[in-house]
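Can anyone check this?
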Amino acid sequence: MQRLDLKQLLSQKLSPQQIQFIKLLQIPTAELETRIKEEMEVNPALEEDEPDEPEDLDHDDSSDDSDDPDASLDNDENTLDEDFDDRSADRETADEMPEPDLAAKEDLASSDDAPDNTDLDLSDYLNDDEIAGYKMQGDGPGEEEERDTPLADTSGSLLDSLLDQLHFADLDERQEAIGQQLIGSIDGDGYIRRDLSAIANDLAFSQNLEVTVKEIEDVLRVVQGFDPPGIAARDLPECLLLQLERRPQDEATANAERIIGETFEEFSKKHYPRIQQKLDLEDDELKEAINVILKLNPKPGGSGPSGLGKTQYLMPDFILTNDNGVLNLTLNARNAPELRVSPAYTEMFRTYDKAAKKDTKMKEAVTFVKQKLDSAKWFIDAIRQRQNTLLRTMNAIVELQRDFFMEGDEGKLRPMILKDIATRIGMDISTVSRVANSKSVQTEFGIYPLKFFFSEGIATDSGEDASSREVKSILKDLIGKESKERPLSDDKLEKMLNARGYNIARRTVAKYREQLNIPVARLRKEL
């Protein structure tokens, strides 16, 4: 039986402009340029504002500018600097409104979806003052923008290098096809972890090439002879043995090969007495062999700039400088071109407004232009809002962690969580989280991700909470000064921290040690 029910529901939805702002907020500076280029490609109303060319000393071209009909499009009122000079007095007001107006944005979006059949109101689009860019006064100063920033490495990857070496190998067409399949199966660490029979099946299905496992093993042995040493191994022992084969074959190398080949399990657990007993090695012989093994590379695929992945350089989003005790924070806008709405579209609206006959085709064209113009303005507003939010968030972090930024001592870090910053700047925790997850700041002591400054508090005997970063720093220092013959256990580390006034449990010590990528005491033991 069908029923007709009446429900009253109250819900809140994000407008497209709010969604756009959220996505832009979590983009780091290194990816912002790409996102802006993508927007410029799909929206012809958005263009990059070309910088003014320097004037000649003799001013010979001054008269030519006055005759140029397009010179009026490049006047000061269309530039970003003029726009933001006019708006500088309103920056504090803009900072207090981090979220776009939901109702207003939805009204604009609905107007785009259904073009109005009545006469278009072009008054808002004929006013040049409404056409704004997003270059902010908080962006980095000239000296910082002119500073060379390292770019991603453009040299060939390890995959390209291996394929080049394969072409120079003395292989027939069938073997070269097998070699290409093997090289394509190498993972990021430089290993082939797939079973050779599975690779044979891939060749049969993808290239209609029937091969045996023996043929694949023969070609694999050739690929394993390529640089870097240890590449294309199927497990860690094979990787180390491949590297030992290329070393000078002295007594230490021979003992190292025996340790890896016969007692790898004992070696991985550092049971050195068992290794000596099984291989009949003296203390000096064992120590020399272990030193040889420790110099090998367990991940040949990720070594140096020629690894399988391109080298990624960290580009800071903020630049913090110390000017005689005064901390100055600026945004790094090196990779963000200045944007504006194309003046040509304003001229198009003027032409339509003055036209005596307004046919349907022209009206449709102007409606399309209006949609693109609105989209361009919303994008510029989202960029401006993004920068306002970034500056407010980072300024709050600098205020809370001022002692660290002044001295660079991790012991000066205060306990700080996302809620502390969200409360201080009057925003939601999720907004602060988006800022902190993918941003970094350049200081006089190095580049730090914003996540670095957030930490939980540890109770102390003095009654004040200490940052977990401070405890980790002390823990790392204690382990660094320990005797390698008798490393400190987690119980001993707990007692040493308690003696210093930190109320911390052994399981917390173990958790912090694992977060620092420090192994247990048994695996830290050295000969």
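Reply from J.R.: I decoded it. The two ends are 83 Å apart (CA to CA).
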